From TrEMBL:
Lineage summary: Bacteria, Pseudomonadati, Pseudomonadota, Alphaproteobacteria, Rhodobacterales
Protein name in UniProt: NAD-dependent epimerase/dehydratase family protein
Pfam family, one: Epimerase
Domain of life, per lineage: Bacteria
InterPro entries: Epimerase_deHydtase (IPR001509), Lipid_A_modif_metabolic_enz (IPR050177), NAD(P)-bd_dom_sf (IPR036291)
Segments forming domain NAD-dependent epimerase/dehydratase: 5-238
PANTHER family: BIFUNCTIONAL POLYMYXIN RESISTANCE PROTEIN ARNA, EPIMERASE-RELATED
First and last residue of the signal peptide: none
Length: 309
């Protein structure tokens, strides 16, 4: 049993990770500013420190006594970061450097952090692997890439092992559907459940690699287990399977037993056309792959959201 810090642990992914660590018998400390996360997401056994990830004192307090840090805190919305450039930068990049520095000072505590598939930019059709030259198109992607660059030099300069993960589009229970900035599946799922129309930005033929949150948790845990060998490296979190937005709507609508009403709006600024990850490197080095199909993941999401009322 060990103690782990999860930054952003009251959020969507962090709260699922906390459940998995607690189930394994670990102790969990969470640092969260509750800007989008909710205490209600988190198991009561986890200790919550309310504070900001870009505040060095709060991070140092939270990290004390921890065997590892899962740094998940951040502003997840590409669109929000377009509109709030500096705020996104402070949280997503300064926040990451703040965590790295605190971890180095606390005795070189290994850090697993979430970067993003947004570092690739518009990579075109076909699966991208980690050797692809990153070309982010948005402030969000730039800040994630900047975080990775700090993570890559952390070992050489500070002896700090870090492992970066590049999630593609994560979905699952507890992803908040109430914000326009939330993940598309949570929004479409909630609207279809209420019999409301869904709005597609653009023609709906953009593609995504949707990965279920329980799979993401397994990638995070595998990365922590491999932190000494994989220090300074980055890995995709993806399924290697592609889906258009229109196909996603069809599958979701079928699961809901509804005929979807689809409206179209303008494409979002900086929106990526095709996003598909190559899962081979994570499989080879971390020994982990995504196991949940989109159909099964959506069905699980529906069951949970119907149970939650
Ligand atoms: C996701 C992640 C982001 C980053 C990125 C990696 C979220 C919220 N964002 O950005 O953190 O990891 O992937 O590339 O998970 N859309 C609609 N209608 C809606 C909402 C969205 O058509 O009501 C479209 C949107 O224009 C885009 C697609 O759905 O083409 C996915 O949008 P998103 O906001 O779920 O995620 P994305 O890919 O911008």
């Amino acid at each position: 049993m060990a103690r782990y810090l999860i930054t952003g642990g009251c959020g969507f992914v962090g709260s699922h990770l906390a459940d998995a660590l607690l189930a394994r018998g670990d102790e969990v400390v969470v640092l969260d500013n509750l800007s989008t996360g909710k205490r209600a997401n988190l198991a009561p056994e986890a200790r919550v420190i309310e504070g900001d990830v870009a505040d060095p004192d709060a991070v140092a307090r939270a990290i004390a006594g921890c065997a590892g840090v899962f740094h998940l805190a951040g502003i997840a919305s590409v669109a929000y970061c377009n509109e709030h450039w500096r705020e996104g930068h402070v949280t997503n990049q300064t926040g990451t450097v703040t965590v790295f520095e605190a971890a180095a000072r606390a005795g070189r505590v290994p850090v697993v952090y979430t970067s993003s598939a947004a570092v690739y930019g518009d990579a075109g059709p076909g699966a991208v692997d980690e050797a692809r030259v990153p070309r982010p198109r948005t402030p969000y992607g730039v800040d994630k890439l900047g975080s990775e660059l700090h993570g890559r030099i952390a070992m050489g300069v500070h002896g700090l092992p870090t492992v970066g993960l590049r999630p593609f589009n994560i979905y699952g229970p507890r992803q908040d559907p109430s914000s326009a900035y939330s993940g598309v599946i949570s929004i479409f799922n909630s609207r279809l459940a209420q019999g409301l129309p869904v709005t597609v930005f653009g023609d709906g033929l953009q593609t995504r690699d949707f990965v279920y949150v329980a799979d993401v948790v397994r990638f995070l845990m595998a990365a922590m287990a491999h932190a000494p060998q994989a220090a300074g490296e980055v890995f995709n979190i993806c399924t290697g399977r592609t889906t258009t937005l229109l196909a996603l709507i069809d599958t979701l609508a079928r699961l809901h037993g509804r005929v979807p009403v689809v409206q179209h709006g303008d494409p979002r600024v900086g929106d990526i056309r095709d996003s598909l990850g190559d899962p081979n490197r994570a499989r080879a080095v971390l020994g982990v792959t995504a196991e949940v199909t989109l159909e099964d993941g959506l069905a699980a999401l529906l069951r949970q959201s119907q149970a939650a009322g």
